[in-house]
Amino acid sequence: MSKTNLPLKEVLYGRKIVLCVTASISAYKSVSILRKLRKLGAFVSVATTPSTKRFIGSPTFSALASEAVFDDLWTNRGSIAHTTLGKSADLILVAPASASIVSKIANGTCDEIVSAILLATPKDTPILLAPAMHEEMYENFATKENIKKLEENGYNFIGPDIGELAGGDIGKGRLSDEEVIVEKVIQLLNDRPLKKFETPETLITGFPHVYDAESNVKTLGSIKRKILITAGGTREPIDPVRVITNRSSGKMGHCLAEAALISGYEVILVTTSNLDSSLDILRINVDTADQMNEQVMKYLQVCDVVIMAAAVGDVKPKNYSATKLKRESGITNIEVEDNIDIAGEILKNKKKNTKLVCFAAETNNAIDNATNKALKKLPDVMVLNDVSRDDSGFNSSTNKIWIGLKPEYDFVEYETMPKEEVAFSILGAIN
Question: Which CATH superfamily is domain 12-220 in?
Fold first, then answer.
């Protein structure tokens, strides 16, 4: 990055950046961009379109930004937000920039907070747009004309890149890499004078802060909620050679752990998988359901959220053989017994306000079976995935999910997405 001779938190120290997030599958990447800008010392305000909440919730942005997220044009925060944000900003970043917001800016449309901010931003304030959309939308003549019009009027663009798009297509329309976008921000701000804006000095430094919804201010302190996530398929030993297990790879659970880390949680990951995980995640490796339950119970009382993404086996051998069983000694007649119901143990022992998320992996009558499971276990969130599909479930890089919320569990269908993106949708449903 530029200004490498400066300490990390001073690269953008004192800069105010308004990050505008529009409705796009790649909206989850804006969380990573936000974290990077904050680490570089910037004061970052976040504004989202109403449809952005379909992809990622406002609480995630509010937890990581320098002040509460602006997601409503009509919310009274003591000032006219859409004008004051643009006037006080050193730079406006729109990432991702959807085809819709590009069209609105180019044609002067203003019907929600993001388009209002962009319309009210002074001409001398740099605006950087990072488009993200399907290739056909990007290549459409209307989008091309809108981008050309904006470029002629001094707007800056970065990307889009060629890569995997929603639905698995490969084409031009993918959001540029987060590091590249941040580098472009630094480049545009180099040698530009600082704009003065009134805010507590402590909020610029990147220290943790807490948002007080009643007073609309953030105060110094710890904001990190703790989340415990289980991942992988349990393995119940029959003898030193054989186990009872299932096809779960643990990828969905690991993606959830990484997404939670990006979203500002302190993450505890209890996993049977050999997949990698970030060093900032407290990782605990286990094999059996009993071992997993022991670790979940150990940390349960300090957790605000528990996500049971692991595929816990229903049964285990009644008796373990310390030596390898021989075929002729009756390996086919192994007695089994019920495994511990970890979700049930969580519900009996968790704090009142701790949120529980459960998964239902189904192959037939998926909605009915998931609903029955939800009504029996009563989690706060039930995630259904149909593992009979080629694009979903075990060992797949994508997932097709439905999410049902307590108490009715009316399941809402989500489009097939990479598991990394599915993870943010699930986290958004918790808030």
Answer: Flavin prenyltransferase-like (3.40.50.1950)
Contact of 209 with 225, CB cutoff 8 Å = no
- CATH top class, domain 226-430: alpha beta
Helices 342-349 + 289-299 axis angle, to 10: 20
349 is catalytic: no
Spatial distance between the Cα atoms of 417 and 114, rounded to a whole number of angstroms: 26
Residue 68 sits at φ, ψ, to 5 deg, of -60, 145
Please answer whether residues 269 and 317 qualify as being in contact, where contact means their C-beta atoms are separated by less than 8 angstroms. Answer: no
Q: In angstroms, rounded to a whole number, what is the distance separating the alpha carbons of residues 381 and 377? A: 10
First to last CA, the chain: 34
From the candidates 140, 246, 369, 431, give the one annotated as an active-site residue. Answer: 246
Map out the domains of the chain as residue ranges: 12-220, 226-430
Same fold for the pair 12-220 and 226-430: yes
CA angle 61, 25, 222 (to 5 degrees): 20
CA distance 279 to 299: 19
Q: Which residues of 197-235 are buried (b: 16+ CB within 10 A; e: fewer)?
A: beeeeebbbbeebebeeeeeebeeeebebbbbbbbbbbb
pLDDT at res. 11: 74
Tokens of 226: 């703790």
Local structure of 201: helix, strand or coil: helix
- According to DSSP, the residues that pair with 226 across neighbouring strands are 266
pLDDT score recorded for residue 202: 33
Task: Classify burial at 348, counting beta carbons within 10 Å of its beta carbon; exposed 0-12, middle 13-18, buried 19 or more.
Answer: exposed
Please state, in angstroms and rounded to a whole number, the distance separating the CA atoms of residues 247 and 264: 30
- Report if pTM > 0.70: no
CA distance 72 to 241: 59
pLDDT single digits (tens) 165-179: 666 667 788 899 999
DSSP-based three-state secondary structure for 219: strand
